[in-house]
């Protein structure tokens, strides 16, 4: 999905999510964004790291401005992906928002121990999920000053 209406730099949102319904809902929530953006999607942790390291089919992948990361992923779990991102000097400055259904205190604590930028529990209520995604977009893509590569 690409929305470009101004001369602003196109923002890349990297969505790491295995649930097709959640992917569609998040894309829909971002559809009317005022920020020119593209959403790049992978559905497992192995592909997430290949994308971020620009390996194989992802050799020309754009560097994300923001990563939305689910914790419960196939092949490589989101906790492992987060640990690898934050341990990699080339990736650690990319903001990571954990967006997951887990309310488990251990998941929350572990994510912050691994230096997640914020942890948000997904709502199963559609209007609440849209509100959450809009808030993420407004804060991380409009309000915050992000580092350049």
Automatic annotation (TrEMBL):
PROSITE patterns: RESPONSE_REGULATORY (PS50110). The modification 4-aspartylphosphate is found at residue 70. Keywords: Phosphoprotein. Residues 12-137 form the Response regulatory domain. The keyword Phosphoprotein applies. This is Response regulator. It comes from Funiculus sociatus GB2-A5. The lineage of its organism: Bacteria, Bacillati, Cyanobacteriota, Cyanophyceae, Coleofasciculales.
